[in-house]
Design a protein that fits this description.
The complex is a heterodimer of chains A (about 400) and B (about 325). Helix content of chain A is about 35%, strand content about 10%. The mean pLDDT of chain B is about 100. Classes of the chains: A alpha/beta (about 400), B alpha/beta (about 325). The structure holds thiamine diphosphate and magnesium ion. Thiamine diphosphate sits at the interface of chains A and B. Chain A: It comes from Sinorhizobium saheli.
Chain lengths: ~400, ~325
């Protein structure tokens, strides 16, 4: 007899599946205000525990507490609430438009609005995001026109991308929003390159890479960390852990590592975990990372702990793989309701004003939609030209593409 | 066709416990196109499981398992996402037998939904078959119907070498002839939609003539087989339509026999034109049938641009464009 028994393959499984009682007892949630706030020039070795905690500012009572609180004014917080509400209303309308056949596809942010909306406010003009498809708040919070976003979603005659791209794959250099690619993780490392360029040119701009929990499994994620670490690139590396990657729970990508933030530790990159449903905490941590980058102290890895309340996309039905009520059991609550409560506690907001704002915001989105629809939707009204298929592949159209365009009759 | 693909894996897993199936979302959920639905429940989670989102990891581990003696059949969620795995496929899977002189081999199957027609934009519509046929050591299959899909996939799983199995996603729910404005017809109404339950194989490397004809030869595969058949009906040109089924190895004999008979040839594929698989086909026809040709060989393909979202049907080489090519070949 050998001292070793036979091997077996370990395949991780989520704690619950459809039909089971939702259970997040494994998510350890520290009290708001309990995680210390180090100086930005801290030795990363001394803050390794921040990769395993959760930085939170808003407590259950709606108060902002602890060392990460106190950075935003009433006006800034009210604007933040408005951005998140706008994004939510925008999503609701676009989901409906997709169901009505006005576009082919849509991806929503429900439950994750705080992450992109608050983050945008920690950056400056000239900085660059390399987003995924679930960070439209970066545009909304930078006052990018909603009509333009809708034109892109409807692939209509005014679509800035001329119908070439899948809905929600926006682009805006002016608004610090790099053109989104449908293939995952590729842009995480590009953010590092952009940041290195800023350093090479002795500029002052910083970059932010974005990736989902599931996509951290791609090699490009790891390439990004090693380049960022080696060159101390002025980049913020954002992991949005919304617990799911389509039907795959986060444990498949996380493996034996305790958290996604912990991925940064082996590279010597300061890694912070933050309550992604807490607007104030997201802003505070993003600001800390942006300050570090701007002071030439190098990269920061941030894991936003949040929950994808909606379906992955309009092609997905989550009831096939997770309990229907799981989102209600999510212990970090709803980002909009939490900020609303805080503003009420601060004495600058009320239930009545909130209800009124909700109606006004929905109206604003509907007005934008009307404007966009006047330029067409995917199958009706104004549409991009067939000519647009052939334009823009190269700066100058090579003869073989010109021949093909002519063959197509344009 | 989804059921056919699933049945092929089911039958293979039932017959051979070395067959394992994995990929993104393929375990509990059964894949975003539901091709592996029920396999985890039936065979357990060590034989059908979810993989991390890492295509190089999926193919790389499949190669390692194959070297051990398993027969992995992995799914890449969309063909457009195979690029991270390309290094593993081209430099590793394709060459392991050769460089080790058979000491190690790589019997893997890499399944991937391919092609457009679902408004998937540039990253859910690509047809990268020529990137595989250009690699020495890979076999490349593109089925056009459920019956073939099952028989070919079982053959692929039983094959001793790496096989790329491209499933035209627009055919998953029915034969699609390019008339996107018409309602979808189901496979149940099609003779090749009927799929026997048990084990059967279709040899890799054998084409099939889908329509006998004397006026010209059409060489097609996947979705374009149905488009070519529609174009033949609509133009009234008596085309002989060859469904390649396997691009590599290629059934040159069937092609040569047909073109020698008709003297005219049209090659169609959805992938882009330049350096597409059609270029190889045209070269072969030229080499083997030159003295029988009465007209230049015509290609109908996707344009040499990324696959657009809104202008999908102006990009897709539908029956009208294919029909015009028939006329061009006839009138030359
Ligand atoms: C390279 C690549 N592989 C697979 C896919 C298909 N896919 C699209 S989204 C997705 C899940 C991503 O999950 P996650 O990274 O957690 O982001 P989330 O959608 O949760 O925001 C997958 C597998 C893809 N787009 N690109
Ligand atoms: Mg996720």
């Amino acid at each position: 007899m050998d001292e070793f028994s036979r091997l077996t393959l370990h395949v991780p499984e989520p704690a619950v599946r459809p039909g089971d009682q939702p259970d997040f007892s494994n998510v350890r949630i520290p009290k708001a205000g309990s995680v210390p706030r180090p100086e930005v020039d801290v030795d990363p070795e001394t803050i390794r525990d921040l990769a395993f905690s959760i930085i939170r500012v808003l407590n259950r009572e709606g108060e902002a507490v602890g060392p990460w609180a106190g950075l935003l004014s009433d006006e800034e917080l009210l604007a933040g609430l408005r951005h998140m509400m706008l994004l939510r209303a925008f999503d609701a309308r676009m989901l409906m438009a997709q169901r009505q056949g006005k576009t082919s596809f849509y991806m929503q942010h429900l439950g994750e609005e705080a992450v992109s909306c608050a983050f945008r406010k920690a950056l400056r003009k000239g900085d660059m995001n390399f987003p995924t498809y679930r960070q439209a708040g970066l545009l909304i919070a930078d006052d990018y026109p909603m009509v333009e976003m809708m034109n892109q979603i409807f692939s209509n005659e005014s679509d800035p991308c001329h119908g070439r791209q899948l809905p929600v794959m926006y682009t805006s250099k002016e608004h610090g929003f790099f053109t989104i690619s449908g293939n995952l993780a590729t842009q995480f490392v590009q953010a590092v390159g952009w940041a290195m360029a800023s350093a090479i040119k002795n500029d002052t701009r910083v970059a932010a890479g974005w990736i989902g929990d599931g996509s951290t499994a791609e090699s490009d994620f790891h390439s990004a960390l090693v380049f960022a670490s080696t060159y101390k690139a002025p980049v913020i590396l954002n992991i949005v852990n919304n617990q799911w990657a389509i039907s795959t729970f986060q444990g498949i990508a996380r493996g034996g590592s305790g958290t996604f933030a912990a991925r940064g530790l082996g590279f010597g990159i300061p890694a912070l975990r933050v309550d992604g449903n807490d607007y104030l905490a997201v802003y505070a941590v993003a600001r800390w990372a942006a300050d570090r980058a701007r002071r030439n102290l190098g990269p920061t890895l941030i894991e936003y702990v949040t929950y994808r309340v909606g379906a992955h996309s309009t092609s997905d039905d989550p009831s096939a793989y997770r309990p229907k009520t799981e989102s209600e059991a999510w212990p970090l609550g709803d980002p909009v309701l939490r900020l609303k409560k805080h503003l009420i506690v601060r004495g600058v907001w009320s239930e009545e004003r909130h209800a009124q704002a909700e109606a006004e915001i929905m109206d604003e989105v509907i007005q934008a939609q009307k404007k966009a629809e006047a330029h067409g939707t995917l199958h009706a009204g104004g549409r991009p030209s067939v000519r647009d298929i052939f334009e823009g592949v190269y700066a100058e159209m090579p003869p073989h593409i010109r021949r093909q365009r002519q063959k197509a009759g344009y | 066709m989804i059921e056919a693909v699933r049945s092929a894996m089911d039958v293979s897993m039932g017959r051979d416990e070395d067959v394992v199936v994995f990929g993104e979302d393929v375990g509990y959920f059964g894949g975003v196109f539901r091709c592996t639905q029920g396999l985890q429940a039936k065979y357990g989670k060590t034989r059908c499981f979810d993989a991390p989102i890492s295509e190089s990891g999926i193919v790389g581990t499949a190669i390692g398992m194959a070297a051990y003696g398993l027969k992995p059949c992995v799914e890449i969620q969309f063909a457009d996402y195979m690029y991270p795995a390309y290094d593993q496929l081209t430099q590793e899977a394709a060459r392991i037998r050769y460089r080790s002189n058979g000491d190690f081999t790589c019997p893997i199957v890499v399944r991937m939904p391919t092609g457009g027609g679902i408004f998937g934009g540039q990253t859910h519509s690509q047809s990268p078959e020529a990137l595989f046929t250009h690699v020495c050591g890979l076999k490349v299959i593109v089925p056009s119907n459920p019956y073939d899909a099952k028989g070919l996939l079982i053959s692929a799983i039983e094959d001793p070498d790496p096989v790329m199995f491209l499933e035209p996603k627009r055919l998953y729910n029915g034969p699609f002839d390019g008339h996107h404005e018409r309602p979808v017809t189901a496979w149940s109404k099609h003779e090749l939609g009927e799929v026997p339950e048990g084990h059967y194989t279709i040899p890799i490397g054998k084409a099939e003539i889908r329509r006998k004809g004397s006026a010209l030869t059409v060489i097609a595969y996947g979705t374009m087989v149905h488009v070519a058949l529609a174009a033949a009906e609509e133009t009234g040109i008596d085309a002989e339509v060859i469904d390649l089924r396997s691009l590599l190895p290629l059934d040159l004999e069937t092609i040569v026999q047909s073109v020698t008979k008709t003297g005219r040839c049209v090659v169609v594929h959805e992938a882009t034109l330049t350096s597409g698989f059609g270029a190889e086909l045209v070269a072969l026809v030229q080499e083997h049938c030159f003295y029988h040709l009465e007209a230049p060989v015509v290609r109908v393909t996707g344009w040499d641009t990324p696959y657009p979202h809104a202008q999908e049907w102006d990009y897709f080489p539908g029956p009208a464009r294919v029909g015009r090519a028939f006329t061009e070949a006839m009138e030359a």
